[in-house]
What does this fold into?
Amino acid sequence: MRSRVVFAIAAAILLGLAAWFFLKEGPAVPGRPGLPLPSAATPTTSTARPIENQKSKTEDSPSLSGYSDLAAELNAPAGTIRRDLEILHEIFATFQTNFPRTGNPVGENAEITAALLGANAHRFAFIRPGHRALNARGELVDRWGTPFRFHQLSGTQMEIRSAGPDGKFGTSDDAEFSPGGSAPAPR
It folds into this structure.
């Protein structure tokens, strides 16, 4: 039990240091202007465009080099898990457009989420810090609070899974988005 507490404290300190490092003021990529990001209402067909290297426009993330409102509807009370999966797919498509040589962010949920929060070469936040879809461990969670499972099928294809309302993976209420499929759907 004591080792869990020590680990939790160490993880919190490291997460705080990482957040400070990635959110401190500084230029994104000098001399590389981009195009604006698509809105969250973008159709599910990929229309990802390069990010805009700009200073944040709001007070809730003043030190980020830029941000996207693409995730604004993620886990919205009036939304659906289907729409959440579509939004995440579009976020990954936009990420890939801006990092064509590296493709998808890699790692476990927290590492992938960190890249989407601005721990990337452009220091661009595809998801704002403090978003309702983030848990205390820095993971993206579904609308029921269970961390999404991300499976990199390739550098450009990401499978996204939600455990569904019961919070258990491998049951009939799970939902997934698999590239190549026409639309996300419950399993």
Observations:
- Residues 22-47, 52-65 have pLDDT under 50 and may be disordered.
- The beta strands are 66-67, 124-125, 149-152, 158-162, 175-177, 185-186.
